[in-house]
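thread: overnight batch results

M.L. [08:02]
morning all. the overnight job finished for the chain we discussed friday. pasting input first so we're all looking at the same thing
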Amino acid sequence: MTGFHSDALVFFGATGDLAYKKIFPALQAMVKRGHLNVPVVGVAKAGWNLDRLKARAKDSLEKHGGVDPAAFEKLSGLLRYVDGDYQDPATFAALRKELQDAQHPAHYLAIPPALFETVVEQLAKSNSARGARVIVEKPFGHDLASAQQLNKVLLSVFDEGAIFRIDHYLGKRPVNNMLAFRFTNTFVESFWNRNYIESVQITMAEDFGVQGRGAFYDQIGTIRDVVQNHIFQVLSNLTMEPPARLDSESVRDEKVKVLKAIPPIEEKNLVRGQFLGYRDEPGVAKNSQTETFAALRLEINSWRWKGVPFYIRAGKSLPVNSTEVVAKFHKPPTLIPESALTENHLRLRLSPEVTIAMGMMVLGPGDGMAGQAVEMVASRSPRAGDMDAYERVLGAAMEGDASLFAREDYVEEAWRIVDPVLKMNTPVYQYPPNTWGPQEVARVTPPGGWSNPSSQEASLAAGGTAA
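M.L. [08:03]
and the structure it wrote out:
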């Protein structure tokens, strides 16, 4: 359903926490850039009216980014509000009335997945789904069967081309910058394959806990929360083949091929951890077996990557807040003893700052031929004015650009990879906060050990050169 811009945005869950922290700031930014000039209809069951919604929006902006007076005034003029129960047809009749002449609304479901089926059916019955798009907030199910059922519900009313499954991580510019790095630089293709790469590791570390969201997180865990969506998106960007064309379907075809080449994770290749104190969090079961840390090993049985192990690590209450990729190269067949060599590497940091670094050996200080490992670093902090992830993905969905969204087959392949091991009830090992997980993680450690992200300043101080 490309070729037109949505002529209204319907926002289910407009009084919720996601709206308060992320969506209102994104909407104001879209208005400020001139990317949003259609009605925005908030829908919720809160006993509110339009003035209350506008006050909530202003409060949201004051606490999350600041109020731009001109942009907020325009946004306020675009806001509409419908209050009512999602089970009640009258709610959707009122919505249809607020949509007025809109023929191609985009319905954004920022609501619990349990409500998706009800809302989708009511949209169809009220004639609000015809010519429309639907934007679905993750999680896309909690396992393969539930993902398939969710897709069945969505496809009963909307065509696949009208379904936009939001993983806001795909809206982050550094994540997409990996594709630019790979496909716009000639030298990268020469070494980005099994002939030169020994192993690849991806770390997504958070230096905080569950931040009062214990009841939610205890039903999800790290693998469902970030591995099978965020990290798999990073993985597919890193390892996909060049697309035949730049249209969204060609790009997404290549991403799906990556996941199809990954066998299900085996129990021996997974270690789950839980930080000490997690079970004392409000809403968390006292005997919880939910992981707050996961380390795993997988392989991609494609022509390019066969035999290269990929190591993934993610968790909460770790020493730093950073997402980083490190690819280690095979050691060269040199006369210098192998024990004296440190592998060359390529390091891509996605957050908090953006870094591309090449690790290499040079002659060390003093007499003799002793080598020293150094990095050549190109780095920058996020640029002022960069689009927020939600601003980018909401704008893309309203334009009909599906390239930043997960397709049905991608979602189901991602669940296929993690589903069997999630059902095995593997042990959960405790680890102290501010450490790199439980000691059992040694079982899935890359050759030469994990490369732990540190601050940009520490990296430069260790011998890097900022470019």
